[in-house]
Amino acid sequence: MKNVILKTNNLNIGYTISKKSVSICKQINFELYKGELLCLLGRNGSGKSTLLKTMAKMLTPIQGSIEINEENIENLSPKELAKFIAVVLTESIPENSLTVYETIALGRQPYTNWLGKLFDKDINIIQNAMLLTDTNNLANKLIHQLSDGQLQRVMIARALTQDTPIILLDEPTSHLDIHHKINIFKILAKICKETQKTVLISTHEINLALKTSDRLLLIDQEKFKIGKSTDNIIQENLMTIFNSDDIRYDSTSNQFIF
Ligand SMILES: Nc1ncnc2c1ncn2[C@@H]1O[C@H](COP(=O)(O)OP(=O)(O)OP(=O)(O)O)[C@@H](O)[C@H]1O
């Protein structure tokens, strides 16, 4: 039997504008299992970031709820939630005056005392995250000295350092070169398998998502679907969302061709 770590109940996501609720997508119902790598796909403006931010309790659902281990996240304090979910957002710019090492070490904050003292276990976790993300050689650089791609790898390292059962990443490879792009997807897939973490990535890298993910989440014009890339319903929706004169989904090779 699958081990459910997160569940949504009739989730309705969106924003409050001039005191009026504007829904982006409704009736979102899914379960995420332990050890899964999932990719969230959709066109620009379809609601990917909105969904991730709602899951991370940075936005309040218009309706419905999200449970982690059967506990409504409404009832979790920020520190409690930080032990379950690590989030990497596109716009999350860390403190500029810190070094890369200090920034990544901040991932241990939910576990350290008020002095922020790190123990051997914390240091091992930090070093392992830096090794996996190829950020060792950047350790002493200041955050503002990094390229966009280097910063993206540092933020992924910080999320890994938080050592949570769930990691949410919003377009984590948008600035990365092809080598690091593939590398990050491979690393995240390996982490899911080896440590039973659940990783959800929003991405425009459709072919990488098709190749590496266990399941896909599709969001489009208020419709939401979840399933394997080989499921008929997912393949039909992939075509509806992304097929155009320039790009076509080929179900035989399970990839988009352009
Ligand atoms: N703070 C906000 N207030 C009101 N509407 C917003 C806000 N942020 C985003 N939106 C709207 O919500 C919709 C979904 O935006 P969202 O950022 O979730 O899309 P996305 O799928 O992540 O897009 P992209 O692929 O371009 O990053 C868009 O129509 C956007 O204009």
Automatic annotation (TrEMBL):
Upper lineage is: Bacteria, Pseudomonadati, Bacteroidota, Flavobacteriia, Flavobacteriales
Residue ranges occupied by any ABC transporter domain in the UniProt entry: 6-246
Record carries keyword Electron transport:
no
Q: Which domain of life is it from?
A: Bacteria
| Species of the source | Wenyingzhuangia marina
Q: Name one GO molecular function term.
A: ATP binding
Q: Which SMART domains match?
A: AAA
Q: Which UniProt keywords apply?
A: ATP-binding, Nucleotide-binding, Transport
Has UniProt tagged this entry with the keyword Electron transport?
no
InterPro entries from the UniProt entry? AAA+_ATPase, ABC_transporter-like_ATP-bd, P-loop_NTPase
What's the name of the protein?
Answer: Iron complex transport system ATP-binding protein
